[in-house]
Every structure is written in C-alpha cells, then in structure tokens.
Amino acid sequence: MLQLENLNYASNATVVFQRCSVIFTDLLLVYAVKECCLCRKFFGVDSKRQPPEQSLLKDAGFVVAVLLLGNFGLFLVDHIHFQYNGFLFGVLMLSVARILQGRILESAFWFSVLLNLKHIYIYMAPAYFIFLLKHYCFTQFKNGRVVYSSIQPMRLLQLGLVVAFVFAASFGPFLAMGQLNQVLMRLFPFRRGLCHAYWAPNFWALYNFADKLAALAGTKLQFLDSSVLSKSSMTAGLVQEYSHTVLPSVTPAVTFACTVLSILPSLIHLWIQPSNERTFLRCLVSCAFGSFIFGWHVHEKAILLIIIPLSLLAVGSRADAKVFLLLAFIGHYSLFPLIFTQAGQ
After folding, report:
1. How many whole angstroms separate alpha carbon 211 and alpha carbon 230?
2. 292 vs 296: CA distance, rounded Å
3. What integer pLDDT is reported at residue 246 of this predicted model?
4. 109-152, pLDDT tens digit by residue?
5. In this model, does residue 271 exceed pLDDT 60?
6. Is 251 left (phi over 0), alpha (psi -120 to 50) or beta?
7. For the CA atoms of 74, 30, 99, 103, what is the dihedral angle to 10 degrees?
8. Cβ atoms < 10 Å from Cβ of 331
9. Per-residue model confidence (pLDDT) at position 8
C-alpha cells in the first residue's frame, strides 16, 4: 500500500484502516460541535432562565449537535465516498467556536491551520480577516465603523505573529528545500479546467449547458459544422481544460473577478456596519456561496462549506432557518451521484 507506484493496490485491511481513520478523526468534529453548543448566548439562550425540564427539540445546543453531527452530506462524502471532510470541518467549527467565545487569537490560529490543511477554505479568509482585524485590532467604534486612531499595534502584531507562525511551520521546509514553486503549482492547478469532472450545480454549469444548446442549435441551423459537437468534452467526466464552442471561454481570472464581486458587498457591510458574531457567520456563508457559484473548478462537495456554518445561523433565526432548509435539501440532493461509485456498481 505504501509503494507509490502501486496505484491499483486494494485490500480489505486497507479499507478497514481508511474507514477507521475517518471515524477517529471525526472526534475532532464532535469536540468542536460541543464547544459551539456551549455558546448558548449566541443562540439567544439564557442558561439561568432556561427551564430545567425542557424538550430536547427546543434545546438550541441539541439541535445544533444534530444538524452538524448528523449532516447527511458529511456522512456521504466521508463514510461512503471516503474523504476527511469531517476532520476539516471540525477545525473550522473549532475556529468559529473560539470567535463565539471571544478567544480571537485561538480562532486565528485554528483557521490558519485549516488553510494549511485544505486551501479550499481560502475563500472564507476575507471574512475572517475583516472580522478579526475590526474586533481585535481596533477598540473604538462610531456607528459601527472603526475609529482608525484606536488601532492597537501590539494586538495587530500578535495576530500577525500567530498567522505567520503557522504558515512558517507549514511552508518553511519547502522554502528551505527550494520547492515552494512546486507546492504552489499543485495548490492552484488551473489546468484542470473550469468545471470538475462531476459538475457542481453553479453558474458555470449553466454556462456550459447554454454553450451546448447554442452549439446544438448552430449545427441544426447550419451556422456551425457538425464536427464541433464531437469536440465538446466538458461532459465526458474528465478533469481537463475545455474551450467553449459558441460562448467565450472562461479563464481563471474571470472566475476570480466574479467571485470577488459577489462577496464584496458582504465584506463591505461587515467592515462599515455594526457587526457581531452572527454578522460574521453570515459573511462567512456569503463568501463560501460566492466561491461555490463563481469559483474555478469547484467540487460538488464545496456546498458543505455553505451548509455547515449556516447550521449555526439556522438555530437562532427563522429567516436563516428557511434558507438553511432549502439549501440543505438542494445541496445534499446534488451529492447523490457520489453514492454510485465504480466499486459500488
């Protein structure tokens, strides 16, 4: 199993080891969820006034635990499709819990660790950057806006050192060996194409579909040669670059610009308006949503980056709960094709 060239190796012992490792690492998610459940003030619960005999279904902590630990998408992609997303979301939820507890430096540390574990969470970094900068490095506000003269240089230095320490520990060895460029090339493999082999249900899936329809209509009306249809490979289930037939081809720069424009209003609102932990979580969800809709080579499982943080918001707000219910239903349904693996068939 440890031989790099042994690509087709398979055994029952390997499968058992892999499955058990997923279950074991999920313990971090359990701990992080427990920490979130303890932040009862965030859910509008006063532990002193809470009735001693209250239905579990009305207990905010219990509902949060069910929504996070019983998430169908995590069960599907980790325990059926086999990945370690539960462990990664455990680090994310631990970082969020530290923010809810007011432990800002710990939150920055855990999110920095998360970025170095899986760079897909970089889309959430702008929300973290603005919230941590605003609520840790500034001490005075006027109508929700920071008073720039109230900046605390020592706090800014502390925050920067925490983040720098994590990144130095992660990238330092590669930098010392002169392999940093190789790492960056593998972190951002733009040659994989606009869409994943199994499309995420986002804007570019509709764009590809529109290009297909336009190409089909063009050949029927004899505006295009019929050979262009055979060149279309975006539905072939392959991870590769693709050039659109009729519509303009999309570059990584275009997807980056669309993503930034989609999340910019939320970031501006978080910076200039009165904000708290709930506002931060909404901005976090917005950043994940923008990256899912307009990002480059988005995986279908990226919908969980939206659903998991939204679970916390759904408990304390009826409006957020409606959004969560609709998004969880559609998002989890979009993951169903992952059940039908080649081994399962």
Report:
1. 14
2. 9
3. 82
4. 999 999 999 989 999 999 999 999 999 999 888 888 888 999 99
5. yes
6. beta
7. -150
8. 23
9. 72
Sequence-separated (6 or more) residues with CB below 8 Å from residue 332 = 72, 73, 76, 303, 307
Provide CB contacts within 8 A for 225, sequence distance 6+.
219
Q: What is the DSSP string of 237-303?
A: S--S----SSSPPPPHHHHHHHHHHHHHHHHHHHHHS---HHHHHHHHHHHHHHHHHH-SSB-GGGG
Encoded tokens for 138 = 């500034």
Q: Which two tokens stand for residue 281?
A: 């979580």
How distant is the alpha carbon of residue 62 from its chain centre? 24
H helical segments located in 70-179: 72-74, 85-100, 104-117, 125-136, 153-176
Calpha distance 297→187 (Å, rounded): 12
- The C-alpha atoms of residue 91 and residue 261 are separated, in whole angstroms, by 28
Q: Count CB-CB contacts under 10 A for residue 232.
A: 17
pLDDT at 49: 52
Q: Determine contact, residues 307/71, Cβ cutoff 8 Å.
A: yes
114: Cα within 13 Å, side-chain hemisphere? 28
Contact 84, 65 (CB under 8 A): no
pTM score, two decimals? Answer: 0.89
130-140: string of b/e by CB count within 10 Å (b at 16+)?
bbbbbbbbbee
The three-state secondary structure class of 145 is strand
Average pLDDT over residues 218-239: 64
Write out 41-87 in H/E/C secondary structure: HHHCCCCCCCCCCCCHHHCHHHHHHHHHHCCHHHHHHHHHCCCCHHH
Query: What pLDDT, on a 0 to 100 scale, did the predictor assign at position 54?
Result: 55
